[in-house]
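Students often ask what a holo structure prediction actually looks like on paper. The answer is less mysterious than it sounds. You provide the chain, you provide the ligand, and the output is a string of discrete structure tokens encoding the 3D arrangement of the protein together with adenosine-5'-triphosphate.
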Amino acid sequence: MLRALLGRWRSSLSLLRPAHVDADRAKIAVAQLGHQYANKVVALQDVSLNVRSGEFVCLLGPSGCGKSTLLYALAGQVKPTGGTVAIDGKTITGPGPERLLMFQEAALFPWLTVRGNITFALGAKGVPRAERRERADAFIRRVQLTGFEDTLPHQLSGGMKMRASLARALAMDPTVLLMDEPFGSLDAQTRIHMQELLQSIWMRTGKTVVFVTHDVHEALMLGTRVVLMAPRPGRVVRDLEVHLPMPRKAEDAGLNEMVRHVRELLRQVEGPGLQEPAPRRPPERTASRPGLPAQGLPRPVR
Ligand SMILES: Nc1ncnc2c1ncn2[C@@H]1O[C@H](COP(=O)(O)OP(=O)(O)OP(=O)(O)O)[C@@H](O)[C@H]1O
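The corresponding structure tokens follow.
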């Protein structure tokens, strides 16, 4: 019995392997990235990370380890103080239409319906008026919101708002989707539902996704790769490929064994001196978020 359990544990952990991706084969190539904020906090130090096209990479780590700073540097919203980010071999200098950033807030225009939010975004992208409605409805179907096309955001639940936001993001057709704890404010059940939905959409569309989370289970449920980060200074400490088959189920035994193992790895890399809470963010960072219909639109440079 014990031998069987040990065997199963070993076999699921063998599905977690160090990642090695050459920069010249990468969709996203991050090289020796560093970022120091004006208050001298070193949010990132010497971060190098290569992401293949079509990978689902989860940035995982405790509060303050620089996950969001790295994500915003990929979006071109943070100008790093050192190093480079290249997309398809071209160094980025700011935001671009091939990358789209999604936040925890759904950021829908409150006066527009679900369909209206999407057709507005399609209009901004230059899609002809005649095509917008049909395309919007196709994405509404994809996120399972059929029947809510004419509903205003305040009439939707948190999960439904997030689905509408995801439909709008997909309608913009970026090749890279950058997601900053998008399901962080949802209840546990809705969160699992959203994870399953996102996974099935990712499997069909093959988008490159970089997804920030501090939830180990979420990272292993979704990621083909998990990048473990540690704070002060923010850095990458492990880069692991997850070879668990997809689609994954939240209660899958192999997944949950892996979760326990990665939690232990995180405990080791965090160390005793890192348990103190991270300094609070300055107010301007969050103040601009509520109600900000800002998918893909410039956010303040931090
Ligand atoms: N605008 C800013 N000005 C100064 N320091 C900042 C700013 N934004 C973040 N920081 C600091 O940079 C470090 C990394 O922050 P970041 O938000 O990137 O970490 P994180 O891992 O995403 O944290 P969390 O999980 O809490 O969102 C932290 O110490 C944070 O206090």
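The pocket of adenosine-5'-triphosphate is lined by residues 37, 39, 41, 43, 61, 63-69, 214, 234, 278-279, 281-282, 285, 302 (CB under 6 Å).
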